[in-house]
Amino acid sequence: MEKLRMKLLPAIVIAVVISAIKPAQAEEIVTQPIRTFGLGTLDAVAYSPDGRHFATCGTGGAFLWDIETGTVIRTFTGHTYGVSSVAFSRHGTRVVTGSDDRAAKLWDAATGDCIRTGGGC
Questions:
Q1: Which of 28, 43, 52, 84 is at 20 to 30 A from 100, Cα to Cα?
Q2: What gap in Å lies between CA 112 and CA 77, rounded to an integer?
Q3: Does the model's pTM come out above 0.85?
Q4: How far is 8 from 46, CA to CA, in rounded Å?
């Protein structure tokens, strides 16, 4: 069920954006990708508490992005399978990821270093 919900997340985001468009702008709706990154599927997105970054994850791994420039500033490397969940700590200094390798990893958001690995059950 969790995988299905995560697969629906992009569609839900698009629906929210479309519902916010004024009727005069309706003819400008883009139905094709504006930009692709070649980083695999998108399974989850998390926004940092300060609003400056967002993290994504999927079959290509987990990534930290700069919202202003739209570029990847950090790659969290260490899972052996696709990453299915991502979240920021309350202060935004840490990122936690969960993977199909049945491991959860805690990362330093500033350096990308893995601080702790758990799970594997």
A1: 52
A2: 8
A3: no
A4: 15
